[in-house]
Amino acid sequence: MKAKQRSPRGQVALGLMVMAAGLGCTALAASHLGMPPDQLALDTAAGLIAGLSFVFGGAILVVPERFTGTRAFAGALMITSFALLYDWAAFGPGERHLHSSVPFLRAGFASPLSDISGRILFAIGAVLFNLMALWAWIRARWMVGRKPGKPAGKRA
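Request: output the structure for the sequence above.
Response:
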């Protein structure tokens, strides 16, 4: 079954809502920048990076499809934001409180993960997202100056 295509206005409206949510998250995290670490309810770095990834994701939806270079640049920024979030979780300071769970069991099973095993799992994700970010930046560079309708390998 084919998915219903959004209208251009609907796509822009959705993009603006996603960008507004990201700006709200970023503003909330930025309001905690000057506070001492022991008084923080959230990690400021994670909030800033997560909010920016929503802003860049919304920008992809707002920019018209004919601006392929701009959309590729916003996509590269979004993937880089995700990569930074994984980098921060894997290699950033502080202790992580992670839990593993098996949700499909009737009783549910959850156990705490050790800090080292959690960081190893996030490090694997960080490496994968860093490689995706590298690919996205290479692709964004290829897309600069490309005219719509031309294959990705051909420059304008």
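The mean pLDDT is 81.
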